[in-house]
Amino acid sequence: MWAVGSPQGAALAVAAAALAVAVAAAWRRPRPVREVLFFPCRPCCLEALLAEAEAEAAPARPCPCPLPRADTSLSRLVRRLLSARRSLDLCIFSFSCPLLARAVHLLHRRGVRVRLVTDAQYMGLQGSQIGRLRQEGIQVRHDQHSGYMHHKFAIVDRRMLITGSLNWTSQAIQSNRENVLVVDDAECVKPFLEEFERMWEEYNPTNYIFPKGSASNAVEIND
Ligand SMILES: [Zn+2]
C-alpha cells in the first residue's frame, strides 16, 4: 500500500478523479444514433404516433382501423422525423406517401423549418404529395436537369441523417426491398448538409436558366 500523502498516493488519487470525470462525461453524452431499417414492412397504424406528436398533452383517441399498432421500420422512420425540433431538410426523388406527408406537414405546423428538394419530373406525377405540401406553405425547390434528382435523404435538426434507397411512396414501403440508415455522426451529416445547401441554392428559381427556344416545347407540370 502507498502511504496517504505519498507521491504515489497523490498520483493515484489524481488518476481516480480523472477516471471519474471521464465516466461521468461518457454517462451524460447521448448515445450515438445508428439505426438500420429494412423494407418492405408490414402495415401498421400510426395514428397514435401522429396524434401524440400533434398534441403532446392531449390523450390520443383510439383509431378504429383494424391495423395493429406495431413497432415497424415505418414507425421507427416516422419517430425519427417527428423528433425534429428546429429544421427538416428533405431531398426526396419520389414523394407520394400520404402518411409521410402528414408527418412533414405536422412538423411544419409545429414551427419546424421544412425545406424540400425534389425531382421536377416526378413531382408532377399523379399521387405526388409535393403540390399539397406546397399549398400547405412548405418551401419546395426542384432540379432543372434532364437527369433525375435521385437522392433520398433527410436531415433532422442539422445533426441526424436519414438516407438509403427508400423513396417516400406507399409502394416502396409496403412492397419493395429497401434500406434506410439513420446516423448522427457529424462526419457523415456534414457533407449531406453541404450538398443540400448547394442544391437549395442551385435550384433557387431566381437562378434558373431557360435555354433558347425552351418556351415552345415547355412541358406543363401540374403541381
Ligand atoms: Zn389506425
From TrEMBL:
Catalytic reaction equation(s): a cardiolipin + H2O = a 1,2-diacyl-sn-glycero-3-phospho-(1'-sn-glycerol) + a 1,2-diacyl-sn-glycero-3-phosphate + H(+)
Keyword Lipid metabolism attributed: yes
GO MF annotation, one: hydrolase activity
Location of the PLD phosphodiesterase domain: 145-172
Superkingdom of this protein's organism: Eukaryota
Keywords: Hydrolase, Lipid degradation, Lipid metabolism, Meiosis
Classification via InterPro entries: PLD-like_dom, PLD_domain, PLipase_D/transphosphatidylase
CDD domains: PLDc_vPLD6_like
Transmembrane segments: none
Pfam families: PLDc_2
PROSITE patterns hit by this protein: PLD
Family label: Belongs to the phospholipase D family. MitoPLD/Zucchini subfamily.
Protein name per the record: Mitochondrial cardiolipin hydrolase
Organism: Willisornis vidua
Designated gene of the protein: pld6
